[in-house]
Specification:
The protein is mainly beta. Helix content is about 10%, strand content about 45%. The longest helix has 11 residues. It starts with 6 loop residues before the first strand and ends in a 6-residue tail after the last strand.
Length: about 190
């Protein structure tokens, strides 16, 4: 009740278009295109091979299903809003240019999934004034880059682990960081 189907996606674009015509909605050939173009809330992303955002996208109240992937590629910005239930893998995949998850307001990363940051300082979890990242008890953030960048408050009840040769820097804004979870540097990494 209260839900409206607004878009479908299929790697076979023709199949997406056929389904879209049947329901009078938009059809897309890639998750990245759908997330960028369709104004989505309450999304469930289920993909066998992931979807990569190349430029700008917003995830608002999204669920990433177990076994699925959402990739924010180098030189991209994905805005996170509300509770993101991540039971799969959400990745920041910088290869030199910035790849950002931009926290808007209070954003909770819930679920049993992983936010994976590639081995690059260009990966950033940042946001605007008054924003707070909440890493829930069963959720993990791992890799290299920056969390906070002196721009957001951070609450960690889950696991944040540096596990790449490039450092993972946690730098909250003046509001600070509350940690009831685990912060760890593994395999000689720097946190």
């Amino acid at each position: 009740e209260g839900l409206e189907l607004v878009a479908v996606c299929n790697a076979r674009f023709e199949a997406a278009q056929e389904c879209a015509r049947q329901y009078g909605i938009s059809g897309f050939g890639s998750v990245a295109e759908m997330v960028k173009e369709a104004r989505l809330q309450g999304v469930i992303i289920t993909t066998p091979s992931g979807g990569a955002v190349q430029n700008v996208a917003t995830l608002n109240g999204v669920t990433v299903s177990s076994g699925s992937q959402f990739v924010s590629a180098t030189n991209s910005q994905t805005t996170l809003v509300g509770t993101i239930t991540n039971n799969g893998t959400m990745s920041l995949a910088s290869t030199g240019l910035l790849a950002d998850f931009n926290v808007s307001g209070a954003v909770t990363l819930a679920g049993s999934g992983l936010v994976s940051l590639s081995d690059n300082a260009g990966n950033r979890i940042v946001g605007g004034a008054g924003s707070r990242l909440i890493n829930d008890a069963t959720h993990t953030i791992a890799g290299s880059g920056q969390i906070g960048a002196n721009a957001i408050a951070i609450t960690n009840a889950g696991l944040i682990v540096a596990n790449q040769p490039t450092a993972l820097v946690i730098d909250p804004n003046a509001t600070g960081m509350t940690n009831t979870g685990t912060l760890r540097a593994a395999h000689g990494a720097t946190l």
